[in-house]
Amino acid sequence: MKKDILFLCQFFYPEYNSSATLPFDTAKYLAEHGFSVGALCGYPKEYNNDCNVPMKEIKDGVDIQRIKYIQLKRGSKIGRLINYFSFTFKAMLHIGKLKNYKSVIVYSNPPILPLVAVMANVLFKTKIVFVSYDVYPEVAYASKTLNPGSLISKVMNKLNHQLFKRVAKVISLTDEMKDFLLENRKELTEDKVVTIPNWAHEKIIVPSKEAYDRFGYNENQFIVSYFGNMGTCQDMETLMEAVEKLRNDENIKFLFVGHGNKVDSIREKIRKDQLKNIQLLDFLTGKDFEQAVAISSCCVVSLEKGLKGTCAPSKYYSYLQGGKPILGIVEEGSYLEEEITKEKLGYVTYNQNSDLLVKHIKHMSENKSECLEIGKRVTQVYMNNYDIEICLNKYVRIIELV
């Protein structure tokens, strides 16, 4: 008798990045609702504090099997490619495990991993549910990390053709991404694509003196925070220009928390220009992250131009859950611009317009009562649209129908 669903992903429990916590949340929820659930995932390294993680375990009803693979630093393109191919190759060696499941949920990261699901569909008729966190190879084209005529690009296009003609369901994170997929993946029909956004699950805490002291701020300062990846897809340049232009304003401070291939250049700019109004910290988890969000006066979500429809920043949902006014550095016409503007969640700046960003930050810092009202709307939007129960119930309905 086949089990119901296998999660196939590079990151999983006990790793603490969103690429691990979101699949594990989903797996747990499905197990709680009576499905037999397994996971085939990578052995944790970079996003894990536990040195004694077993190769196999059952956690919250999820039967987890982990794979050891080459894990180089993700800051370089070569390192990421080696990691992707190494994990996918090792997962292929375990393809027999997929024979025991009716369906597989596979994620777009790493982008070649769906090859394993396609092979399982060919060999065992395993149904495929594909979760599109990013749309490859277009997101790589837009971020200029991949050339359209390259060998990897050709491989990705052939893989996509095989994947999308076989999927039972595709999960897009936004309606904008759904429209992009339907327009650019001719194998898909509208009934196969379902929008399920990401969610957040940190505890919401009231900012305390301990939290301000922890990060070296005080409650009278206006703290502009950025959390998450600072990589190729994020417009950090516009944000850093605003930091520089506000360097002499003692009331406004910046807090950057996360990782990515732009971190080193940001750190160097802070050192070279002697910017005293910004802190740059590594990835935070648990109470540390919750405290950092709590003391933030507003939070920044940023995407480079040309990425519309191809990706969705996961930390946006943490900002909403935390009730924080949003500053968006986005492309004109994007879903982020539409939602932030329509719901009055904060203010929007287009790419390369740091002057407008500075204007928005100054306005918010001088109108804190307005920020409190924005925060109430932000919380309501999260509860109405992105609460974890709302999103996970959609996954239950999909698995019931597959």
Automatic annotation (TrEMBL):
Name of the protein in question: Glycosyltransferase family 4 protein
Keyword Chloroplast (UniProt): no
Superkingdom to which the source organism belongs: Bacteria
Coiled coil, from the record: none
GO molecular function, one term: glycosyltransferase activity
InterPro entries the record matches: Glyco_trans_1
PANTHER family reported for this sequence: GLYCOSYLTRANSFERASE WBBK-RELATED (PTHR46401:SF2)
Gene Ontology BP annotations: lipopolysaccharide biosynthetic process
Glycosyl transferase family domain mapped to chain residues: 216-378
CDD domains named in the record: GT4_WbuB-like
KW Transferase (keyword) present: yes
Species whose genome carries this gene: Faecalitalea cylindroides
Keywords, alphabetical: Transferase
